[in-house]
Amino acid sequence: MQTLIAKLKNARRVAVFTGAGVSTLCGIPDFRGPQGLYRQPDAERLFDIDWFRRDPSVYYKGCMELVYGLRRFKPGPVHHAVARLEQAGTVKGVITQNIDMLHQKAGSRTVYEVHGSPLLHHCFGCGREKSFEEICVLLESSPVPRCERCGEAYKPDITFFGEMLPEKAFSDAMALAQKSDLMLVLGSSLTVHPAASIPPLTVRAGGELVIINAQPTPLDRDATLLYPDLAAFAEAVLDAWA
Description:
This protein is of the alpha/beta class. It contains eleven helices and nine strands. The longest helix is centred in the last third of the chain and has 13 residues, at 167-179. The protein starts with a helix and ends with a helix.
């Protein structure tokens, strides 16, 4: 890890791109893993916008544990390492595919959630806004949280299939990637598009790519450094920026 630590210390602008591997270290199941959400029967309906319009209870019943149980989880060592790098001025922003809000809990301030987030929910009818915590309170007494004003269901600001990705988060993430001289990919298979199209932007702009992931990725050939162990990365960063 000494080579990577040296690169991080010499870099002018570092972007971080995170995927499910960062969250599984905290005990959160990978949606696409062997026991993940997408292995459940009718899983394709859970994050389908047409199904939500038809019957929002399908989403709330299927995601009660994996989305609204996220309150129980705490950031892991990788989240803390990334936050430490941002506090040191090395990392200029975090681009994440995850919807677990753990980067913010760890102290990261500039986070681009390119698949959306449950941090806010909006009424599907009138657009009224509720926080994640307010929705969790409503779910204690009702299987589907509904708007007090119009009676429609609240939908999380997670990007469902059939919806556009959050435009500002995605454009800001692309701008960060293009301006960075080092893109650090942590725990992502880089197979989910269009988010996976962001890290190559750094390489095309003349920057370097470093990938830390347990399995190979389609961009391994473009990486300057490859590592399999996220825990070792976190330990090295927390030691170097103690």
